[in-house]
Amino acid sequence: MPGRYRIFQILSLCLFTFYQIGGKAQSVNEAFYKKLNEHIHSDFFSPIDFSGQFKPDEHKTLWHMADNSVTVHDGDQKIQLRLDDLSLHMANKVASKYTIGLYRQDGTKTSITSLKNGKIKDNKIIFTLNGGALTLSITPFKGFFKWDIVPASAENIASMALKIVAKGPYFGGGERYIGTKLNGRTVSNQPNDHYWDPPKTAVTPWGNPHKPGHYNNYEPSYLQIAFYLNPFGEAWFVDDASSVFASFNENGESFEIRVENGRTTFYSIHRQSAKEALHTYTSIAGRQPEIPDWATGVWVNLLDGQDSVIAKAKQLKEWGIPATAIWVFDMGDPASSQGYQNWTTGTYHSLREMNESLHKLGFKSLSYLHPYQEVKLPKSDADNPIYQKLNALGGRPDRGLG
């Protein structure tokens, strides 16, 4: 879609994954890249659908619709979504309220503040809006709702904004470089590896007394997630690979999520506590497996070639330094998408031999794993055959997952 800035197009600049080097070079997974390219070049990319972690049948619950309200049963609790004003009610909690703003390609805007004439089909409530130009479906689950907004044509809607009136303070958004409280701030789901130079405000009194340029309007972070929550059991997650910007009211009364796409899916979670809301979110997005003890130990970064790495690793053992892992990244191995050779020098004769030597010393081996391929071989003018192979599958492997 013209003008769309997909988050995956910039992952190559700033996303890194620690990767335990295997005994042999990992071959490029052509099937994975092909599937990924198909999703990226579709009208809508759902990270949840792509990952396959969400199991809808595990979250089914009893619900009914009457008097233009949807009531969901969650154990002894009831959650009521009143469609007349898109407000959500739970016992002993402040009601929250939703407004959906749709921005057309011609610059006009439509606000959805109520819904009616919903049809129940396959556990969903489906609403046809704007004379059939848009379909909005709501699927009730135990403790949350899934909202799907789908235009009849990808050209109908340019972007949308979800305004949510709910009690703050607000937290989330993924990794944060400054305070975790989001009140009065705007964050995005784009990974940004740049210097953040904010203006001087009440939120950032240490900032500079000037208006920032566009490049630093939004806080940089390596790991952004369009997931937000308050301390009272409410949470919101936008399941979309397009650019998402969330602006939070300084007083903690409301916030707005802007999605740069004409179609989106988002989840509104409604539990008794923030812990329960987080548990529900991870049941949708997937949970971190239990990590081994060595992963929480001391990691030492060793560089400058295979011989240098092994010699320094032996010194660590002689000195009795209780390191558990050696992180090496200045090699270049396109076949396994490993390494980052920009600054240091040194020859790596065989990653297998280096890895085996480190294992014999009792260390785990870690490196960078890139989601992209360079056009040329490292420090060379020669074409990278892995890039050429992936490029033939479609997409731009030099732009990461985009």
Structural account:
- By secondary structure, this protein is of the alpha+beta class.
- The chain folds into 2 domains: 7-43 and 291-399, no CATH class; 54-285, Immunoglobulin-like, CATH 2.60.40.
- It has 7 helices and 22 strands.
- The chain has helices at residues 11-14, 30-40, 47-51, 274-285, 306-319, 351-360, 385-391, and strands spanning 17-20, 63-66, 69-74, 77-82, 87-90, 96-104, 109-112, 119-121, 124-129, 134-141, 144-151, 157-165, 171-174, 186-188, 224-229, 234-238, 244-248, 254-259, 264-270, 298-301, 323-327, 364-369.
- Strands 2, 3, 4, 5, 6, 7, 12, 14, 17 and 18 form a 10-stranded antiparallel beta sheet that branches.
- Helix 5 (306-319) packs parallel to helix 6.
- The protein is elongated and about 75 Å long.
- The two termini are 13 Å apart.
- Mean pLDDT is 82; it is low at 1-28 and 210-216.
